[in-house]
Amino acid sequence: MNAMMETSELPAVFDGVKLAAVAAVLYVIVRCLNLKSPTAPPDLYFQDSGLSRFLLKSCPLLTKEYIPPLIWGKSGHIQTALYGKMGRVRSPHPYGHRKFITMSDGATSTFDLFEPLAEHCVGDDITMVICPGIANHSEKQYIRTFVDYAQKNGYRCAVLNHLGALPNIELTSPRMFTYGCTWEFGAMVNYIKKTYPLTQLVVVGFSLGGNIVCKYLGETQANQEKVLCCVSVCQGYSALRAQETFMQWDQCRRFYNFLMADNMKKIILSHRQALFGDHVKKPQSLEDTDLSRLYTATSLMQIDDNVMRKFHGYNSLKEYYEEESCMRYLHRIYVPLMLVNAADDPLVHESLLTIPKSLSEKRENVMFVLPLHGGHLGFFEGSVLFPEPLTWMDKLVVEYANAICQWERNKSQCSDTELVEADLE
User: Fold this and answer.
1) Helix or strand or coil: residue 44?
2) Which of 209, 264, 299, 417 is the most exposed place for a label (fewest CB within 10 A)?
3) Active-site choice (112, 304, 345, 394)
4) Pick the catalytic residue: 138, 173, 207, 325?
């Protein structure tokens, strides 16, 4: 009798275990996908001024909820992984012309030029000069999607191809792109200014490109001539402060660090002959032993220390990161500047976000935009599962640029009116 009772109780026990297992799996899914996180408008940091009030009225995306895809869009990791793996969905193929510039050290810089597909909203000639993320170029899907959208809104687009990033373009000097070298970007900007003397510039940088464009603008006041505004998306502001966080396993940053280092190794090794060949006149500090260290590197910091810093003769990794980071140049930028980061970006530690927050508290020209979700260069939008081709980031950058163009037009019209009134008096 007792044996029969024990047997009848076993199914109930197993059902309880199954129920607990299902509950545990659901809990993990909810936690990993961050499903309980609310949707909200981005946090905005700025000083009250005529410009900021105009932007709030003219840029609805700054005050509207950013709503990512329901199932996975609140996970910064999935947003980042989708950006990294597939870039964008149904990405267009804008048609452009590739331009080549020979640099003073013999390097061959390239950029792609795309003409506008419509008249700009203010009727002016405006060129977006765009600097992509680490090891990226004009053929990346997120760049193609953004360029196509900008063209349709009346912008000419010039997109820098980082030195060594395009697989079909050989290096012509023993040097690659680095974290903060602005030479190639500056050469592209100068080409645009000379070729289109009436154009005005909107400067845009993504991730590492955000560091480069901000550093470029802050290097000299002359670099800000003819620049209407600058937008930086998902950069980390200080490589020196970021290096410690990149070695932490929190938010899997150490894993992302390994993946990016592996990609950088492949790019460097694809140019092995141009960088390390016997016939190459290498920088004095770059030795053959650095190539062997490159093979065993598992982090970006090791690659930067053994190879990248030596392209420009820095004596230490600390010096390289201090000099190449835009943080020491941001306060020298006087044109309107929008800095965008996502709070759930797994690559940019929250401690780094104190830099743009502090800057926006001191400078009237700076607005810091911080949505809850978006990951690293993700910012996908969509209803439940499938994302839209165009992202919140694409729309925000163009909307901000349009607003700044209108702001400048209104300012010039007001100035003209004041001059006429003064002449009448």
Assistant:
1) strand
2) 417
3) 345
4) 207
Assigned CATH class of 35-238+329-405: alpha beta
In one-letter notation, the amino acid at residue 200 is Q
Q: Which of 61, 205, 224 is nearest to 134 (CA)?
A: 205
Does the annotation count 109 as an active-site position? no
The β-bridge relationship of strands 337-340 and 227-233 is parallel
358 noted as active-site residue? no
How high does pLDDT run on average in the chain?
Answer: 89
pLDDT at 281 over 80: no
Task: Report the half-sphere exposure of 158 (CA within 13 A, side-chain side).
Answer: 26
Q: Where are the alpha helices (DSSP H) in 72-207?
A: 76-86, 141-152, 183-195
From-to residues of CATH 3.40.50.1820 in the chain: 35-238+329-405
Nearest alpha-carbon partner for 253 in 141, 375, 142, 374: 375
> What does the block give as tokens for 143?
């760049």
In this prediction, residue 29 carries a pLDDT of 53
What confidence tens digit (pLDDT) does each residue in 221-250 have?
999 999 999 999 999 999 999 998 999 998
Q: Per residue in 12-24, pLDDT tens?
A: 655 555 555 554 4
Q: Is 345 a catalytic residue?
A: yes
The helix/strand/coil state of 114 is strand
> Amino acid letter at 133?
G
